[in-house]
Every structure is written in C-alpha cells, then in structure tokens.
Amino acid sequence: MSKPLKLIFSGGGTGGHIFPAVAIAREFQNRFSQVEILFVGALGKMEMEKVPAEGFNIVGLPVEGLIRSTSVKNIKIIFKAISSYLKAKKIIEDFRPDAVIGTGGFASLPITIAATRLGVPVFAWEGNGFAGLTNKLLKKTAKRIFCGFDGMDFQFPYNNWIHSGNPIRQEILEKTDKNSAVEFFGLDATRPIVFVTGGSLGARSINEAVESSMEIWQKEGIQVIWQTGKNYQYTQSSTGIWVSAFLKEMHLAYSCADLVVSRSGATSVSEIMAVGVPAIFVPSPNVTDDHQTKNAEKATQYGGGILIKDTEIKSKLANQVVDMLKNNDELKNMRTQLLNHAKPKATQEIVNQILKDLNRE
C-alpha cells in the first residue's frame, strides 16, 4: 500500500484565492481514500473562517501584504514576513508534505518559499490574465504554474506554465432547466432576462447604472435578476425584476439569463465562459495591476462579450443591453465562442497534472 498523499494548500485574502484551493483539495479527496490536507493562511483574514467551514484544518501565519508606497509600517510587515517564513518552515518540517499548492495572495508566499528551499515541489495557480506578485516571485522555481487564461508566456517565460483554466464550482456546471430556473425567480420565460452581479459586496457604479436603466428596460420588456450586494438598497416597484443583496443560487441565474452584466474577476469570467452566457464586463478600477481589465480583454478577444469601462457604464449600459438582446445572431455567436474557449474540467486537469508531476498517477 502506498503511503497517504500529504498536501499543503495556501492562498487567501479573498474568495478568489480561497475557493479555487478548496475546489482542488476536494478533487484530491474524491480520488484518494487516504489524503492528508492542511491549509496555511494569514491570521485575521477570511480564510481563517472560510476554510474550516469547508471542513479543512488551517494554520495561520502573521504575514501581511506590503503597502505599495513608502510607509514606515512596512518595517513591521517585513519582520512579520520573517516570522511567518520561520513558522512556515517548521510547518513543512513537521507535516512533511508531498507538495505545496499556492493559489495566490500574500498568504501563500512564506509557505511556498519555505517549501522551495526545503526541496518540496511547489505548484502555483494564477487565475488572472495578469500575474500577482506572489506568483511572479515563483515563476522560476514552481514545478508547474496553472493559468486560467492562455497567452501567459510573457508572465511565465520558463516553460513551466500550462493553460488549465480556473476551478469552477460543480453546481455552476450542472445545467438547470431554463423553465425551472425562471420559475424560481418568478419571471416570464418568453421575455429576455439580464443577470446583473457586482459580487457579494456589490459594485456601486454598476448598481447606479442599472437603476438609471430600469425605465428603458421595462419599456423594452427586459427582465432583470439583480444581485446588488449588501451595501446598496433598491426598492422594487414593478414586476419583471428580482432583486437581492446576495444570491446563493448563481447556477439558476446563469441558466435563465440571456445576458450577464458583471465585474471581471477570474472566477466570474471563467464561470461565464463555462456556462456560455454572453456578457458585458465592467472591470473594477480598484484592483492591483488592473488585472480585471486583463481578464475581460481575454474573454472579449474570444468574441464572448464586450468590455465597458467603469467610468462609462452609467452612460452606456441601458442602450447596450437593449441592442445586444435584439441581436440574436450576435448572442448565438458569443455563446459559441465562450463555450469553445471554456475550461469546465479545469479542476480535474490541475489534479491530473500534479499527480503526473509527483509520479502518483
């Protein structure tokens, strides 16, 4: 009997780093009856709550992200980084993993550096079309870097990256009957539906643009599924509109939507591609290295939607939605292009490659 597979996962700060790691970890559990998994995160960050809720053990490090401007606070942050590295080294020596898998964010840096120096294989996942700082530092030493988008040679020039796609929740991939999905939202299956989401926190610019567009859309018979986020209030005053601060049943919204209006985080773009729903992407202007614009550009280059700048969304959204929904041929072509370039089996492909590289197939 072969020894149990032992893996350390690390990545955090946002759900975009945490949940792909969870998806990959679950795939390993599904394949192996004997697998030991440990997560390593940053103390005080959301992974310390979300990961245990998913049923995994996690150890926290005092690491913090550097302030990207001259600040005396960075001196304290550097000392925390040194402390985190020493603790990460001890974690690896005690746990003795077969591999460390980093999914980005500053939380994954100490453990991946320690693993590299101790001779433990390191695998990295980069979901965006523009690499984050941690993965840039790993570009030479990682055994394999899994990328959500293609054309990443300029980011990772050492022939150790592959276009795997981004891990997607299984329920998103499971197609729901459109009539059942429409019924859930209390809408009319014979009229067009646009699904608007700015994420769990919402996006004020998108929300304001939707509210100002509502009268035009109502006249055109366009229905709306609208996830506003917790920081925006809208009083529903007519039929054909479903509004909520948070939407757990994302798969149902995708199943009945003819068009999506969304931010362009890596996970959102990958989900939209996998379900083949044409999109209007509105990149957030408040992210590091403007990586949401890079993500949206990848999807729109495939012909699966259009990009509207955050500063222009209020003036352009209403008419753009109307024009797109009236052009059935264009929408059909967008669906085809999205599905042709999607990677719905990304999680399985990532696990397959890790096992191959570890000679554990």
* CA gyration radius, whole angstroms: 21 Å
Main beta sheet, described?
Answer: 7 strands, parallel
Strand content: 15-25%
Please report the total strand number as a whole number.
13
Q: What distance separates the N and C termini?
A: 14 Å
> In sequence order, what are the helices and strands, one letter per element?
EHEHEHEHEHEEHHEHEEHEHEHEHHH
Specify the helix fraction band: 40-55%
Any overview of this molecule?
The protein is α/β, with parallel strands linked by helices. It is built from 14 helices and 13 strands. It has 2 domains: 178 residues, Glycogen Phosphorylase B (Rossmann fold, 3-Layer(aba) Sandwich), CATH 3.40.50.2000; 171 residues, Rossmann fold (3-Layer(aba) Sandwich). Helix 10 links the parallel strand 11 and strand 12. Helix 1 packs across helix 14, helix 3 packs across helix 4 and helix 10 packs across helix 13.
Describe the structure in brief:
This protein has 361 residues and is an alpha/beta fold. The protein is 43% helix and 16% strand.
